[in-house]
Amino acid sequence: MAMSQLKTTIGHGVDDIPSTPGKFKPEKSSPFFFNRLRWYTSLSKLTLWFFLSLVLLLFLFFASPSSSPPRHHLNGGAWGGQEWERRVRLSARVRSTNKAGHTVLVTGAAGFVGTHVSMALRRRGDGVLGLDNFNDYYDPSLKRARQKLLERSGIFVVEGDINDEALLRKLFDVVAFTHVMHLAAQAGVRYAMKNPKSYINSNIAGLVNLLEVCKSAVPQPAIVWASSSSVYGLNSKVPFSENDRTDQPASLYAATKKAGEEITHTYNHIYGLSITGLRFFTVYGPWGRPDMAYFFFTKDMLKRKQITVFEGPNHSTVARDFTYIDDIVKGCLGALDTAKKSTGAGGKKKGPAQYRIFNLGNTSPVSVNDLVSILEKHLK
């Protein structure tokens, strides 16, 4: 740029500029020429310094940390930022005047059981923060409707996955949770034939990720989580007892829940996490999952469609121990209230911690044939 200006202003030809830089000499030396040369050289240096300074300022501006926390974008939303943190803290704040109020992280909060448990916790004044990934295992609009129900009660449901370690650690940085109610899971038995990896991803990998974050938390929370009656598998003895064998799972779903029990026991033993597992027996009630038998049986009956009823081993009648959602909620809250504190801190165990497993159901199985008869009677 500077050489071009010299050429144009002074009027020398190309032959006047030697191939070796810095060797240019005019034919006639004069004070006027050298003054002009010094002026153009100074101007070029100023332009260069201005350009370099501008680049440096722009670099510092974009490289410097923002005054507000960063936002992390997900498929359905984003987390992070001052407003997001404010909503998290507000939702997790204990409302009860009782000093024993819990601060609970509920995973799977927009699910069937998660919604009812979250509402019950809020009604009694506990701090509640929800977490749900709003997947499409069934129509997500049902979860969105439950989310609105929770929001009307002041419960914020963070949209995110339990496999997102950064998100979980951020939640524990913002809120010191006393308890975790872990209800997030890939449910259903037959769906495993279509998407087996989803069960491993949620029921095993997601559980381990959550336990990893909980073990490092200060303080460590007490954990109550949803296992399943399906762990009894091929065991034909009824009614089931917590001491019965659970080493013959009959589905991938059951196998992942059994694996979850072994994994939680390991974290309890090594890291001092207080853990309670609840083996749910077929849950029914308002806001239930549309893939449950009583829902799709009802739907098919109303549409005058034929109903398919599956038989058990050796052509036996299939029966389920149906448990109403309110009873499940009572069991979940009871487990929270009686859970002892974890004994570890920052990933180090300081003493033996509580470990429990309970059946959450009743002793009155209902055959699927009887269920169909009851529905037919009331839908006529």
From TrEMBL:
In Pfam terms, one family for this protein is Epimerase
Subcellular localization is given as: Golgi apparatus, Golgi stack membrane
Q: Which molecular function GO terms apply here?
A: UDP-glucuronate 4-epimerase activity
List the GO terms this entry assigns under cellular component, sorted alphabetically.
Golgi cisterna membrane
EC number(s) per UniProt?
5.1.3.6
Domain NAD-dependent epimerase/dehydratase spans what residues?
104-341
Keyword Metal-binding included in the entry's annotation: no
Keywords of the record: Isomerase, Membrane, NAD, Transmembrane, Transmembrane helix
InterPro entries in the record = Epimerase_deHydtase, NAD(P)-bd_dom_sf
Report TM segments.
46-64
Q: Reaction catalysed by this chain?
A: UDP-alpha-D-glucuronate = UDP-alpha-D-galacturonate
Give the record's membrane topology: Multi-pass membrane protein
Q: State the family it belongs to.
A: Belongs to the NAD(P)-dependent epimerase/dehydratase family.
Self-association state and partner proteins as the record states: Homodimer.
PANTHER family cross-referenced by the UniProt entry: EPIMERASE-RELATED (PTHR43574)
Protein name per its UniProtKB record: UDP-glucuronate 4-epimerase
Please tell me the species this chain comes from: Opuntia streptacantha (Prickly pear cactus)
